[in-house]
Structure formats: structure tokens, C-alpha cells
Write a structure and sequence with these properties.
The chain is α+β, with helices and mostly antiparallel strands and 138 residues long. Helices cover 49% and strands 23% of the residues. It has a 4-stranded antiparallel β-sheet, with helices on one face. The longest helix has 41 residues. 2% of the residues are buried.
Amino acid sequence: MTLTAILLAAPDAGEQLASMNSQIVQYVEVLLGLIGVLILAYLTLRVGLPWFFQTRNPGDGPIEVLAHYSLEPKKGLYLVKTGSQVFLIGTGENQVAYLTAVSEENAAEIVRSVRQREVPRRDFRQILSRFQKPGKAE
């Protein structure tokens, strides 16, 4: 082979730089695409699904679930308030059973204790802060 053939076969620096730039551009495009998909998934779960299923906040309307206690994976007990009355209801895999009405004195105490135990909802930032390393500023 001649010297001319070797020089023609070797890629020049411009082609190498263009090749490297195109790889970086592709990497950035994939990264931006992933970020876009994550944002779309978050918005869908946070805004789209509740709007689609027309869910309401707990406490809206005349029926309110005060407490839930799981007995087994598909069985549970519920304290349900309708108006000023409180009922104990049992649920199973394919059934709902009325168990008893709770007296007004006990109902007032139950409602008071449930109100005191209510835990405020945490937003996404608070959940992520658990994973933050100590000593880092927010």
C-alpha cells in the first residue's frame, strides 16, 4: 500500500468529532425522551386517572368511612358514618354485611379519636426527601 492509500483510508479529525457529537446528541435525545415519558406518567397518574374515574375526596357527601381494619386479605371491618349515625360493617370477598349500629356516645368518642389520629397527606417532595443523603441542602 502506498502512503496515499493509507492517508485516504484513515478518517480525519473532523469525521471523528462529528461521530462523537452525533453520539452525544443521541444520548441527550434519549435522556429527554425518558424525562418526557416520566412526566407524562406522573401527570396521568396524578391528574388523569382521578379525573377519568371522577373520584371524590374522602369526606365529600353524606357517607364517610371513619376507620378500616383488615382481618384477612379480602375481609375487613369498616366504621361508616352516615349523617349522625355510625355503623359497623363487615366485608368479605363477595359480600357486605351490616353488623351493628354504634351508640351515639360511642360514636362521638370514635369520631373524636379518628379526627385526632388523621395523618396529613405527604406530597411527592416529602416522600423523596426520605431518600436524600444526610448533609445535603434542599
